[in-house]
Specification:
Helix content is 40%, strand content 21%. It is of the alpha/beta class. It has 4 domains: 9-123, no CATH class; 132-206, Type II secretion system, protein E, N-terminal domain (GMP Synthetase, Chain A, domain 3); 224-328, 2-Layer Sandwich (Beta-Lactamase); 337-622, Rossmann fold, CATH 3.40.50.300. A hairpin with a 2-residue loop joins strand 8 (295-303) and strand 9. Helix 13 (224-237) crosses helix 14, helix 20 packs antiparallel against helix 22 and helix 22 (556-563) packs antiparallel against helix 23. It is globular. The structure holds zinc ion. Zinc ion binds next to loops.
């Protein structure tokens, strides 16, 4: 790499306009060649202080030919050429039309803030971060709140004959037309972050909520109420999945689970422990007086940006009550099945042989926090249509999807799993989602439903895909039932993504090679990366996560192996040799070789049950 058309385009413009001289250009090229780690030429020119951001911006905007967003991002050094190509592939494969920028954000290659900054440079629209006070409410009232929400825009103020309108997507011609129609004036578009606009729209169009139970805005910061609110709100802001509040001999420690890893948030003085735990117990309707037994509960937490559902577990330790709050309905995007990280061949097999099969059991397996539920939701999202009836029994419902019947199990009111499953089949469903198969009863319900022509989606707690089959057999489901109803088992993990802002090239160490059971020759053609740590990734070197998968499709050979009651070792070998199974380790290795995740993550998260094949072979099997 080093030169590409866009680079030449921008650099050529800079030379043409006299912003940099031919000499400076050659000097920068020489410097670039000497760097041990590749840097785009623009970045080198900037570091040599030959050009400034403002000059780059002016150059791009003055160009009569528009420069594509992907090229801009690569050239400015925000994403790698590989990332760009990966995103282009997703764009090409995706059924719905998606903008490249949207895909890059969805896939965590860049954050939205960066995208809109670059878009504003590319399109010449001003970038605004409006606050509530700057907005002309009279203008807003001309437009129904439903329209504001669905198109995500806000009129800000009148400017001569125009109205300045902040849009999340200024390329959305529809939104611009609608805005102009309601406002009765031509509009002048500006760009604003979607989240900012959504918040403002919510505040402007707020209707009184009668369900408020715990408001995150009242109470002073020093009170237990204030502290607990602050902890929860901060966890929401950090997009944490869990909050750990644990008493230590000398203090109360609070940590958040972010991207699957615990990170220290804050310590509080020891004397606050009783007040804080009492406050949480009140919120989740647990028994305040009980301090010697484990307890659980739920909290419905209202805050400015919406409603949050928290599951609470109070566990008695030698130092006192350790409290874990799980944030349930976080603002996560529901991922399109195309973009959860399945390699091209695995994706098409998964869709053809599992998701689009008219009946049968589809299992997704992995430990807690491996993204199983998200994958199931992606499948539901792909399958839902006005022509099919989808019904779920979940404990609890983690995302609410429009148009399907979801039931949250609540043993506290005797709405048990068993009870729910008994009723589910009578609801005349086409597709049944069972949150988790955890006992013989739920396994039987799943198998029976599949036998009677239903499609069943469920999750399972097992290490790998073959383990899922073996677990079912161990639950006393007859081998012929397993082999005739289960259509596929997808095992998965979430690995942390290398931070795109501080990624550098790296090579595996001899110890890593040994642990991977690979030779350097096996990994030929790999581009391993590692984040150095920067402000954008809180110095961790990681940002966001990516799914790693192992797809077992029950073809003739695998079904026979089950009927013959072969060992998991045998079934695994058959699947790898003859049924195109790519193991979790191999898929992880592939993603590390693309620089998406690191070797450390592969070794930390993935089971190493058999020697991986060479990278070339894995690529071929993955359709890359
Ligand atoms: Zn970083």
């Amino acid at each position: 790499m080093g030169t590409n058309s866009s680079q030449n385009q921008i650099v050529r413009l800079l030379i043409e306009q006299g912003t940099i001289t031919e000499k400076q250009y050659e000097h920068a090229q020489r410097v670039q060649k000497k760097l041990s780690v590749y840097q785009p030429l623009l970045k080198v020119l900037k570091e040599l202080k030959f050009i400034s951001d403002a000059e780059i911006k002016a150059t791009i905007q003055s160009s009569s030919n528009s420069i594509r967003i992907g090229d801009l991002l690569t050239e400015l050094g925000y994403i790698s050429e590989d990332d760009l190509q990966a995103a282009c592939r997703i764009q090409a494969e995706s059924k719905e039309k998606q903008r490249l920028g949207t895909i890059l954000v969805k896939q965590n290659y860049i954050d939205e803030q960066l995208l809109i900054e670059i878009l504003s440079i590319q399109m010449g629209f001003p970038l605004l971060d409006p606050s509530l006070t700057e907005i002309d409410r009279e203008l807003c009232q001309k437009i129904p709140s439903k329209i504001l929400r669905s198109h995500c825009f806000l009129p800000l103020k009148k400017e001569d004959k125009h109205v300045l309108v902040a849009l999340a997507d200024p390329l959305d011609q529809d939104a611009k037309d609608v805005a102009s129609r309601f406002l009765g004036a031509p509009i002048k578009p500006a760009l604003s972050p979607r989240i900012t606009l959504e918040n403002l729209i919510n505040q402007i169009c707020k209707h009184p909520s009668s369900r408020t139970r715990y408001s995150g805005i009242k109470a002073g910061p020093q009170s237990a109420v204030g502290i607990v609110n602050e902890i929860i709100l901060q966890a929401v802001a950090n997009d944490a999945s869990d909050i750990h509040i644990e008493p230590l001999p000398d203090r109360l420690q609070v940590r958040f689970r972010e991207d699957g890893v615990l990170a220290h948030y804050k310590d509080f003085p020891h004397n606050l422990i009783p007040q804080i735990s009492s406050r949480i117990k009140i919120m989740c309707q647990a028994d305040i007086a009980e301090k010697r037994r484990h307890q659980g509960g739920r909290i419905l937490f209202e805050h400015e940006e919406g409603q949050l559902d928290l599951r609470v577990s109070i566990y008695i330790t030698v130092h006192g009550e350790k409290i874990v709050l799980r944030l349930l309905n976080r603002k996560q995007q529901l991922f399109d099945i195309q973009s959860i990280g399945l390699s091209p061949k695995m994706l098409s097999r998964f869709l053809e042989n599992a998701v689009y099969q008219p009946s049968g059991v589809l299992l997704v397996t992995g430990p807690t926090g491996s993204g199983k539920t998200s994958t199931i939701y992606s499948c539901i999202n792909t399958l839902k249509s006005p022509k099919v009836s989808i019904i779920t029994a979940e404990e609890p419902v983690e995302y609410v999807i429009d148009g399907i019947a979801q039931c949250s199990i609540d043993p506290k009111i005797d709405l048990t799993f068993e009870e729910t499953l008994r009723h589910i089949v009578r609801q005349d469903p086409d597709i049944i989602v069972i949150g988790e198969i955890r006992d013989t009863y739920s396994a039987e319900v799943a198998v029976q439903a599949a036998l009677t022509g239903h499609k069943v989606l469920s999750t399972f707690h097992t290490e790998d895909s073959i383990g899922g089959l073996i677990r079912l057999l161990n639950m006393n489901i007859a081998p012929f039932l397993v082999s005739s109803t289960v259509v596929s088992v997808l095992a998965q993990r979430l690995l942390r993504r290398v931070c795109p802002f501080c990624a550098t090239d790296t090579k595996p160490t001899p110890v890593q090679l040994q642990r991977l059971r690979c030779t350097p020759a096996d990994l030929e053609g790999a581009h391993f990366k590692k984040g150095r740590g920067c402000s954008k990734c809180k110095q961790t070197g990681y940002k966001g996560r990516i799914g790693v998968f192992e797809l077992l499709v029950l073809d003739e050979l695998v079904r026979n192996a089950i009927l013959e009651q072969k060992t998991s070792y045998d079934i695994r070998n058959i699947s790898i040799k003859h049924s195109g199974l790519i193991t979790l380790l191999e898929d992880g290795l592939l993603k590390a070789a693309q620089g998406t995740t690191t070797i450390d993550e592969v070794l930390r998260c993935l089971p190493n049950l058999s020697n991986p094949r060479s990278l070339g072979e894995i690529r071929r099997l993955s359709g890359l």
